[in-house]
Amino acid sequence: YFGNCFVPSYQTAISACPEYKNIPQYILQGSWSSPVTNKLLLEAGGTITPQDFHGYRRPGVSETQFSINDPTVPAGMPTTWGSSATGYGYNRSDQTNYRASASYVTGSHSFKAGFTLMHAWRYNTQEPNNSVTLSVRGTQPFSLTQYATPIQFHETLKYNMGIFAQDQWRINRFTVNYGVRVDFLNARVDEQNIAAGPFTPARNFDAVENVPNWKDVDPRVGVAWDLFGDGKTAVKASVGRYVVGAAYEIARPANPVQSSVNTVTRTWAPPAGVVYNGTYNPYDDCDLFNPAANSKRPGQIACGAITNPAFGQVTARTTNYDPNIINGWHVRPNNWEGQISIQREIAPRVSAYAAYTRRWFGNLTATRNQAVTNADFSPYCVPVPVDSRLDNGGGYQQCGLYDVNRIITPNNLIFNSNDIGGIDDVFDGFGFDVNARLARNTIVSGGVSFGRERISYCNLKDDLSLTTTGFGVNTPRTDDYCNIRPPFLAQVKGQVAYPLPWWDINTSATFQSLSGVQLSANYPLTNALVQPSLGRPFTGVPPTVDLLPSGTMYGDRIYQTDFRISKAIRSGGTVIRPTFSVYNLFNANPVQTYNTNYGSAWLSPTVIMQARFWDIGVQVDF
User: Fold this and answer.
1) Which of 239, 408, 553, 598 could bond 523 through an S-S bridge, CB–CB 3.0 to 4.6 Å?
2) pTM to 2 decimals?
3) % residues pLDDT > 70 (the chain)
């Protein structure tokens, strides 16, 4: 039972919150192993998981109750009530996982080969009451939305499979681990036969195959070197290739139901002389099955024409994928990771560790809007307010922004950014820690790590048709915004466990100091603000821009100390361990999230660390 709405809000009345329930959620799992000899081990297993977190109407909400929205209600009152607009319906999925392997171990080798396989499908529906939702202003009808129900999506992950072979080889003071994994991922949009609905005829869609069809060979190798042969100093190095986890991210955009015009709006004005008292039924006022403006009351237009005559039909997708990134070998987004480290025993039962890690990402995608060129844009600048918290105190012009000159229908093509020079995305990290196991079972450990992810989108900067996640959509096309170089941020963590010398009492404490969250200053623009620079109003809705380049401003560091004390009480074969824990021992109150909308409330705290609290628990082992 998920409760009412995923994120309850005062803007949504309880009646408009669906009840989400699992009906059912089963897990059936089995495994098998057989030590054929003292060197050969065979293993296999499988898991089946059917799920459906279904959206239901709340008790008392009928199937004919409209969902009604009024954005003009007073602050603090719900803007949506009656029923849920799109929360009812199936969220059904079935997943099966299989694995099998064979391990062969000799004196110097430990070899293992096998495979993993996942198969899954999902089925989603949207079932708004009456296939219509209503918008009002005060008590007066304003507009309505019609849905091309039945709306349903069916996609299948045919296989997400990995075939691997690996070996560990001990050679004198070296231990070498090497292996290779071949990854396959294939998804499709299933054939869909959708029954006729109130406003649409029956629809039939053929299957869409290979969305995507990825194949990758991923090598990995690591070596550990006992530097002096005394088992006290180990130097390790490794490098490996890894692919992005994925399932339906491409199949859903390729689904023809997704590309269909599933909703349209139309004006809905009350006929003259009709008084509404909060009970609405547009079916009484006009013929919703007629796409043209009409009224059931002669001489009065109650409903305007629908906004899109292609209602219920498949239209050209506004977003398409370059075939070269969804089919073939080594086209899947991936990353390489390399690490070198040294671990040294500096005293009996005390060791120190240092490491450097680099991770670099490949096959990152960009989006080209093929409906525009640079000639379709006009540049403008934003006068940044004077504010000591902004770069150089504000009061300057933020340029590098562009507004399209005309209303366009996007024709987006997602492609490999390597075709235009690539997007550089590299993480560098350094880690240092010390671990000590001292007398009387005392354990002390702690360390510090520094890391940053640096990204360059500058190959996209000068072509205004290009965008990617994080850059190019209402983002200044300047070096400050395309070449992100945040500082190295430190994370400090430590822990100590100390058994007291009496009464079998154990104590422990942890400390952490974490970098604060990255901050932004989302500045909503107006026509009046930029018209002196742009020379005209915005073509569409005025955008919101971030006055802070990424990685330039961070919030409070987070300091937290936790403490626990426990006692073991033994009786025969039973051990009872009562515990008392105190979290945020020093009652620190760093801000964890901020209001990032630039204005009078910018950087006001929205969440601070939870105040000091404690709990009591007990563990019984028998």
Assistant:
1) 598
2) 0.87
3) 97
